[in-house]
Amino acid sequence: MIGPSSDAAELIAHLETLRSEENVAGMARFGIVTTRALGIANPDVKAIARQAKKDHVRAMQLWRSDIREARLLALFTAEPKRLTEEEARHWADDFNSWEIVDCAADLFVEARLDELVAEFADDEREFVRRTAFAMIAGAAVHRKTEPDTSILAWLPLIEAHSGDPRNFVRKAVNWALRSIGKRNLACHAPALVVAKALAESPDKTARWIGKDAVKELAGEKLLARLK
Predict the structure, then answer these.
(1) Which of 36, 107, 128, 203 would bridge 123 by S-S if both were Cys, CB 3.0 to 4.6 A apart?
(2) What's the chain's Rg over C-alpha atoms?
């Protein structure tokens, strides 16, 4: 029986018993890196995380296993208040999947590692750069009491990297822009200005990001909700 006293080896052994080759094949179709995957669905990994509880040292050990589900478990059981920038950078060195990135971004936002956003955005590695914009999107949605000025301060970063054509970056940049625009009325107008400017860009990627964001941000449903 797994629980708070279970160590990393015990948790990994438990994960191994849940292996599903059929699920691994299905994950590959969604662009999830399955080289070291066991095929366990995220809700099931989260259920294990709830049983295991938070344990920062153990999370570090789980990460080193290089197994997809163990790394997800590491992200779900790490302690945000104890997570350091150095640890986050170390994990980012291993990022090779949009799925891991997006889960990590949630943790980094909760840990308030905002200094890493600009640093990760400037990193040329596709999945590290994606992390920056996944963090912006997460902060815009989940930090309800954050001053809007802090969220809007990331718009120039979105503009600066709107020309990166790599799939997992451009989608995250678009996601970040839309998330800021949907936050509230105060954020909507500046985000829509950026979206409209990008929609007129001579750069193909920036133009796609802008047009897609304008389509959502100028929608009547969203405007009605924000008012």
Answers:
(1) 128
(2) 19
